């Protein structure tokens, strides 16, 4: 199963200004791109806080919300998805979920959409994780947003 971590960030590397950030600073082109690629992947995994900020399941794809209460590990989630016939999964936030999946060495690619904004500070996509990334390509999606794609090397 191919695991792709997808996040949007400011030019200076933040995925949110604060924990309750509604991401209104993200461009419409990015939201459209995200919808298209995650529908193609078929499954999105996110943390409870991210799901609450979105406010509803994302249509057209299986939505899995990780929390301490669900109790399934990333490996168990992948096993369940493989048993259901899925071939790919998108990890879609937040920072603790990206960090967990990268620490478990389960992420195959990282796709980062870079928004034309700079924050004074905020939340980084990962903490205390070190991986090597190999550039795969980039895609200009409009409104000054560029998606950088990397293969993860552990």
From TrEMBL:
Pfam families on file: DHFR_1
InterPro entries: DHFR-like_dom_sf, DHFR_dom, Riboflavin_Biosynth_HTPR
Domain named DHFR: residues: 2-154
SUPFAM superfamilies to which the protein is assigned, alphabetical: Dihydrofolate reductase-like
Signal peptide residues on this chain, from the entry's feature table: none
Stored PROSITE patterns: DHFR_2
Sample GO molecular function, one term: dihydrofolate reductase activity
GO biological process terms held by the UniProt record: tetrahydrofolate biosynthetic process
Record-given protein name: DHFR domain-containing protein
């Amino acid at each position: 199963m191919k695991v792709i971590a997808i996040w949007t960030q400011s030019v200076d590397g933040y995925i949110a200004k604060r924990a309750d950030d509604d991401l209104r600073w993200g461009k419409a082109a990015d939201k459209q791109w995200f919808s298209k690629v995650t529908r193609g992947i078929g499954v999105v995994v996110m943390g409870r806080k991210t799901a609450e900020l979105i406010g509803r399941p994302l249509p057209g794809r299986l939505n899995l919300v990780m929390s301490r209460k669900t109790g399934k590990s990333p490996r168990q989630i992948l096993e369940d998805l493989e048993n259901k016939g899925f071939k790919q999964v998108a990890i879609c936030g937040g920072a603790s979920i990206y960090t967990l999946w990268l620490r478990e060495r389960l992420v195959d690619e990282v796709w980062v959409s870079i928004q034309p904004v700079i924050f004074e500070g905020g939340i980084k996509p990962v903490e205390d994780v070190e991986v090597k990334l190999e550039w795969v390509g980039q895609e200009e999606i409009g409104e000054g947003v560029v998606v950088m794609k990397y293969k993860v090397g552990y």
